[in-house]
């Protein structure tokens, strides 16, 4: 069945979002049609819509934190049935053959992963369209099974688990890769969508967590999320905050969407510590090499996680009661899209606490 879905999309770089429609493909044998229930707003959506990462694929429907139910299954689907509650994150396909895919790291597919939106479908060459939409089609291998939670699909807990499909895996994966556990000293820079989930996961893994944030305005929340320390990096502290924390951290996760004075954060790494760049500003980095050599420090990047690891993360968060703190955006009626545009502006102003999630049923 070809489905014409209602969506919220961008028609040009930097323009306000508008309502539209997107045609979902007929199911291939290994596809599922999913009725979208919740759709998170990640800062990457805003980078893409605003043209921070230039592209010509307009109109474009963003959205890569998606939860919904399976409405229809392709003839070869074996693991999902109609009615199952599933998640979709940042990718919907990969080559399946390279060494990265063979390791279960489809996110590092050497042939390039297929993004959930603004990607190129490997079979028909069309541009993929994301989750700000009533329906989406996805290969079963790229679906995540969502747990049974209080309130079920329609409940507040499921809305709050939705951002884990990007913000959760993006922070869980490096915390696991760099073997964070009891005794680890972890810093999280920026407490927005990614950062507030990172604090919770790192604390649940047993780390001692310090947040570095613009100001102390979110300090109480940060401590409630599991941080032991909360440090302001702006205002009067801007030129000094790093001195009190020299050589302190085994791992620093930088979740900030804007360029930062990286040398200050490198100086806070303990010997053998690593600064992991998760935020994606476009400006190149400049690093003085002796800041690395003098303590055998590393600087690295990390991008989401593989499908098996995403499932592991969802199960870990369910077991530890970790969810995002969300503001639900309803988008009903002709003016409903204004609420999403307003959410974009509030994300850019660091005002959302801590992730906006669209109630896709109101589309
Ligand atoms: P977000 O909700 O907007 O959070 C970013 C946080 O960074 C803000 O809450 C703020 O925290 C801090 N910040 C923002 N502007 C700043 C500035 N000019 N100077 C200092 N701090 C600033 O964004 P998000 O959704 O968490 O995404 C964060 C970044 O990660 C984006 O660039 C996004 O594209 C990227 N991302 C990467 C991956 C990946 O796989 N690597 C996946 C998803 C997203 P405080 O108020 O606490 O300072
Ligand atoms: Zn994202």
Automatic annotation (TrEMBL):
Enzyme class at the top of the EC tree: oxidoreductase
Reaction(s) catalysed by this chain's protein: a primary alcohol + NADP(+) = an aldehyde + NADPH + H(+)
EC number in record: 1.1.1.2
Residue ranges annotated for the Enoyl reductase (ER) domain, each copy included: 14-358
Cofactor field: Zn(2+)
Family: Belongs to the zinc-containing alcohol dehydrogenase family.
Protein name in the entry: alcohol dehydrogenase (NADP(+))
Source organism of the structure: Corynebacterium kalidii
């Amino acid at each position: 069945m070809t489905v014409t879905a209602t969506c919220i999309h961008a028609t040009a770089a930097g323009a306000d979002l508008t309502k539209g429609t997107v045609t979902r493909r007929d199911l291939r044998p290994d596809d599922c049609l999913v009725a979208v229930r919740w759709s998170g707003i990640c800062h990457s959506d805003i980078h893409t819509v605003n043209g921070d990462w230039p592209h010509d694929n307009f109109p474009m429907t963003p959205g890569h934190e998606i939860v919904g139910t399976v409405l229809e299954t392709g003839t070869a689907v074996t693991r999902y049935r109609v009615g199952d509650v599933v998640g979709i994150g940042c990718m919907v396909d990969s080559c399946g053959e390279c060494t990265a895919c063979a390791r279960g790291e489809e996110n590092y597919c050497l042939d390039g992963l297929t993004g959930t939106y603004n990607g190129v479908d490997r079979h028909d060459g069309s541009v993929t369209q994301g989750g700000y939409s009533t329906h989406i089609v996805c290969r079963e291998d790229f679906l995540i099974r969502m747990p049974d939670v209080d309130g079920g699909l329609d409940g507040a807990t499921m809305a709050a688990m939705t951002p884990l499909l990007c913000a959760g895996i993006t922070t869980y994966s490096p915390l696991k890769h760099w073997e964070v556990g009891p005794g680890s000293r972890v810093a999280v820079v920026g407490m927005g969508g990614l950062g507030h989930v990172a604090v919770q996961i790192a604390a649940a893994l047993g780390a001692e967590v310090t947040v570095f944030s613009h100001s102390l305005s979110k300090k109480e929340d940060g401590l409630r999320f599991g941080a032991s320390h909360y440090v302001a990096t702006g205002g009067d502290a801007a030129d000094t905050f790093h001195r009190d924390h020299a050589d302190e951290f085994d791992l620093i996760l930088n979740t900030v969407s804007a360029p930062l004075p990286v040398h200050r954060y490198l100086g806070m790494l303990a010997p053998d510590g690593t600064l992991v760049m998760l935020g994606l500003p476009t400006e190149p980095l400049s690093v003085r090499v002796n800041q690395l050599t003098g303590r055998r420090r590393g600087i690295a990047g990390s991008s989401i996680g593989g499908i098996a690891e995403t499932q592991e993360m969802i199960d870990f968060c369910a077991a530890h009661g970790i969810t995002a703190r969300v503001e639900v955006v309803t988008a009903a009626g002709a003016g409903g899209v204004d609420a999403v545009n307003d959410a974009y502006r509030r994300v850019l102003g660091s005002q959302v606490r801590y992730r906006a999630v669209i109630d896709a049923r109101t589309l």
